[in-house]
Amino acid sequence: MKKEPLSSLLKGIVEVDETYVGGKPRMDMRSEPKRGRGTSKTPVVAMVERYGNATSKPVANVNAETLRTAITEVVNRQATIMTDEWNGYNSIGKDFAGGHKVIKHSYGEYAKGDITTNSVESYFALLKRAVNGTFHHISKKHLAKYCDDFSFRWNFRKTTDGERAVAAIQGIEGKSLPYRKITEN
């Protein structure tokens, strides 16, 4: 479902956020299960054009260098970046002509004028609902493929089933995924 390379960079207002994907933490009577950055789940960063396309991918961690690399690979330099207040995003504005705008969830802000990360939060809601309700378990090994699948679903959400099927078939042209590759360690 992934286009190689991304056919066009994300542009305009691009919302960026990270989440953690993995199983529910096991209850340990000695401590409260960790959430967010303290968890052992896999971090996923997503970038969503306001009213447009999305892309996401698992990352090794959510430090400034990793986030900057992930963002600059797929976002046009003329874009405006919108994020939450996580420190890893602090210096990203200098890389983009539109700058960097921040919404402060810790202050109870979820929208301040046009500054919001609601689109990328909606993307994550769909991804996590699918993990919890349909797939139940996504291995770290295949998480990137699931991210590509959900980016495809998001990008074609306003098309008919027929148009989406044609796009999926065109996307697999010239690619193969042998069973052996899926099951190898």
Descriptive overview:
With 185 residues, the protein is an alpha/beta fold. The chain has one domain: 2-Layer Sandwich (Nucleotidyltransferase, domain 5), CATH 3.30.420.10. The chain has 5 helices and 7 strands. A hairpin with a 2-residue loop joins strand 6 and strand 7. It is globular.
> Can you identify the CATH superfamily?
Ribonuclease H-like superfamily/Ribonuclease H
- Give the number of domains: 1
Strand percentage lies at: 15-25%
Continuous helix count: 5
Radius of gyration: 17 Å
Q: Helix content range of the residues, please? A: 25-40%
Question: Which structural class matches the secondary elements?
Answer: alpha/beta
CATH C-level category:
Alpha Beta
Distance between the termini: 22 Å
What's the count of strands? 7
Strands across the major sheet, in which order?
3-2-1-4-5
**Tell me, what's the shape?**
globular
CATH architectural label: 2-Layer Sandwich
Poorly predicted ranges: none
Question: Whole-number average pLDDT?
Answer: 86
